[in-house]
Amino acid sequence: MLEAAAGGALIGLAAVALYATLGRIAGISGIAYGAVSGQEGSWRWPFLAGLIGAGWLLAALGRPLAPAPEFSGTNGFAVLLIGAVLVGVGTRLGNGCTSGHGVCGLSRLSVRSLVSVIVFMALGIVSATFIRGALL
Amino acid sequence: MSPVARGAVAGFCGLLFGVGLVLSGMASPQKVLAFLTIGPGWDPTLMVVMASALAVSLPGFWWVRRRGRPFLATQLAEPPSQRIDVPLVAGAALFGLGWGLVGYCPGPAVVAAGFGQQSALLLVGVMLLSATALQWLRR
Question: Which of B37, B101, B117 to mutate to test the interface with A (most CBs of A within 10 A)?
Answer without folding.
Answer: B101
